[in-house]
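Please check the following for our workbook:

***
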Amino acid sequence: MQRLIPTGEAARPVAFAEVPQPVPEPGEALTKVEAFAPNRGETFLLEHPRPGFLPGKDVAGLVVQAAADGSGPGIGTRIVGHPAQGGWAEYAAVPTHSLAVLPDGIDSVRAAALPLAGITALRLLRTAGSLTGRRVLLTGASGGVGHYVTELAVGAGAELTAVTATPVRGERLAALGAEVVHDVAAARGPFDVVLESTGGPDLPLALSKVRPGGTLIWFGQASRTPATLDFFQLLSGPERVTIQHFHYAGAPYGSDLAALVRLVERGRLHPEVGRTAGWAETAATLVDLRERRIRGKAVLLTGEGR
């Protein structure tokens, strides 16, 4: 079968290779991958790939071999899955505890756009707690996570301000009901909750926007720049603010994927897919994703060229 493997080259991060089909573990279903969605964090891992790294965590496709232990769906079932790695290939072994069955009304493109970004959004909002009537600031909002957080938080009754780099990247967030600004300094606080994903100088600035006793949840560092906090500057800012570190990871993922599928099926969540292309375009798409030239998610189709 064909698989995309890391090259270590910035301009061409992956290349095709002919490899054997994966041999699934007893609790894994062998899936014919129809679509996969790269994440920006994966582009960073490709810069200096560790030995044996096989990228690919977000897939949608068809079960061609059911799990040997009897768990999970049978042959011919359409699924969305979140394996630990190896999804950028014609076939992937997906743990049955980290997949969900797809209804006929959800195509593989939208399904592939769900896993990492959608699970992150769900778990992040659970961590934040009830948002009804609360003021929320979301930084780095124009990627896949930002779109899901915005739609779900606004739908839950939050008054959300989203920070995006440009007006174009904020258009859909505004349509979803967010107030959109293009610099953290322009956000009109104070906020009950800040969801911070950029790090660098934005984190202390966002922290200054939190109301006394409020919470900042730090869930990313998209700027790739460490944040610096000054104790004495904090003394002149909001008091008793909680800073909470957050990372989405932790299998099983199946129940969260099923929840995301239900939300899409019921029209309460709409994946933002900024680019759909054949997987021959993966290398170029990864570069554009890394350089933030794609709004929302990018999805690659394994059945289209190479």
The longest strand covers residues 28-36. The two ends are 13 Å apart (CA to CA).
